[in-house]
Design a protein that fits this description.
The protein is mainly β and 175 residues long. The chain has one helix spanning 80-84, and strands spanning 10-13, 30-40, 49-59, 89-97, 100-103, 129-138, 149-156, 167-168, 172-173. 3% of the residues lie in helices and 35% in strands.
Length: 175
């Protein structure tokens, strides 16, 4: 199976801090939910929809993002954890079913919702990072169930394997 990569739309670094503030954020990344905006890719006739998911992140040692292509262009189900370890931004999708939210996994486990971020490590001594990550979620084949609301959950893993808090969006009403 050919690997299908997702493209990161934007990573905006809001700035770095003076050297005396290097430990302001710690070495474990942190996330804070900001927004989700639904847009049409192309025109409204082809119904290709994308949610642009936006989270604010911090990381004290600046080791966020890989910037490289995945290790293999196929999914080895015998070593599925190694396949998943190539990602650093994990995206989980939920739909409201019978009044409660249920996680909806990808239809193909070898094409997860997750993304590989570019290497964001700043040049120089100060490696502190903070900024917004905006990443797409292709929504054209959703919702799976008869639902009027969806949610997203995101998690960030840095190159040292430190995992951020999981951040959940509020319920997003579908029009």
């Amino acid at each position: 199976m050919k690997y299908i990569s997702k493209v990161l739309i934007a990573v905006l670094l809001l700035g770095t801090f003076a050297c005396e503030q290097d430990n302001k954020f710690g070495t474990t990344p942190r996330l804070q939910w900001k927004s989700a905006e639904l847009r049409f890719a192309g025109d409204t006739i082809d119904n290709r929809r994308i949610f642009d998911l936006k989270v604010y992140f911090t990381d004290g040692d600046g080791n966020v993002g890989r910037g490289d292509e995945p290790g293999a262009d196929t999914c080895d189900l015998n070593n599925y954890q190694a396949f998943l370890n190539q990602y650093d931004l994990f995206i989980y999708y939920y739909e409201q079913v019978n009044g409660s939210f249920k996680e909806i996994p990808p239809t193909d486990s070898c094409v997860p919702y997750h993304n590989i971020l570019p290497n964001l490590t700043p040049e120089g001594q100060n490696k502190t990072l903070e900024g917004d990550i905006i990443t797409p979620f292709e929504y054209s084949n959703f919702p799976v169930n008869n639902t009027d609301s969806v949610k997203f959950e995101l998690l960030l893993r840095d190159r040292a394997g430190n995992e951020s808090n999981r951040v959940m969006s509020p319920a997003i009403a579908l029009d």
